Amino acid sequence: MTWARKLWQRATDLLPIDGFHFDRPLVLFQSDDWGRVGLRDREGLERLRSTGLTLGERPYDYYTLETAEDLAALSAALKRHRDSNGHHPCVQMNFILANLDFSQMSVNGWRQIRLLPIAEGLPEGWVRPGLFEAYRQGIADGVFHPAMHGTTHFCGSAVERNSEMEGERSGLLRMLWQAGTPYIYWRMPWIGYEYWDPEKPEEERFLPFELQRELIGHTMGSFARMFSSLPRSACAPGYRANDDTHRVWAQHGIRVAQNGPGGFIPPHFDRNDILQLSRTVEFEPATGTNFSVDECLQQAESCFERGVPAVVSVHSINFHSTVKDFRGRSLRALDEFLTGLESKHPDLLYLHDEELYEFVQSGSYESGQGSTRVNVSKKKFTKAQARKRIE
Ligand SMILES: [Zn+2]
Fold this sequence. Notes:
By secondary structure, the chain is of the alpha/beta class. The protein has helices at 2-14, 41-50, 68-79, 102-107, 131-140, 156-164, 168-178, 209-227, 243-251, 293-306, 327-344, 353-362, 383-388, and strands at residues 17-22, 26-34, 91-96, 98-100, 115-117, 144-150, 233-234, 256-259, 268-269, 275-278, 281-282, 310-313, 349-351, 364-367, 370-373, 376-381. Strands 2, 3, 6, 11, 12 and 13 form a six-stranded parallel sheet that branches. A four-stranded mixed sheet has the order 7-8-10-9, covered by helices on one side.
């Protein structure tokens, strides 16, 4: 089966498809992992260190959870900038809609996973005054826009399988859970991603359709409870989505699927009528080894030259501050990046995914001051070509 699938993959990569191109510079920000707890601040750090875990080897050792102050600072930074229409840049936040319910899990001897939807609050021991109000305020102000990441970031069955087997892995899970931290991915990639179990045979790694349908149904429900709306854009954890995922998303009204970086792939529709968007600029000061604002500006220029949107990837960790101040540097870099874009492009437009979807459908979108015209054209491309064009 594997060779057949690979052959099919190669064939689709060579198949010409209609890609959407635009005659104005468009900039979107896609940001993952909001609402997902990590290290429980200083206290969690000290607790894990006391068990002998050496933290600090990689940035994600210091991933915590955003605070109301982090969001206020991000919102203020975005409000200092405007596009040619007078709109502020908008960070589309992809939310993880549940965390582990550590107190429930301790009752059953840490044997099974129990989830706590963020609509019901944060796990025991976590304190974030004003955080949920800050999400909602930013959304009301138009500088944040909520979208769907998942219910959990990890594959539930992979975590449960490993936690049931006594050994090093279950020991590590329990040590983290007792300190109020669900996981630190790079230390345990065997936990996989929500729809993808890495230790299954290659053909079975994506969860079966029925199971994905059940999970996505739950996620939609949790999103509605949290935001009193339904998401229209989704990004699978770890970008691990297959046709089954897209089919279920489409059934639930998802219109845009977000994909990871890898070439200047123009927005295009898949066979489920979902607009597929690929990230084209990696703005990750907290984790990028050779991060530079100039490089990001160059990546954006390359997009504009090709008539494709600059889809900026920026993970939530960049704005965290409670254990390590990632936020300060990121906001300074963001300010410089936005200033660079605005000074060079008087016709610049900041959008989020749903607005881009509207552009593609109608060639215009409604803004507060009326509608804005953007000429949208279709050009054939192949994914193989688009990937090769990374310079
Ligand atoms: Zn993520």
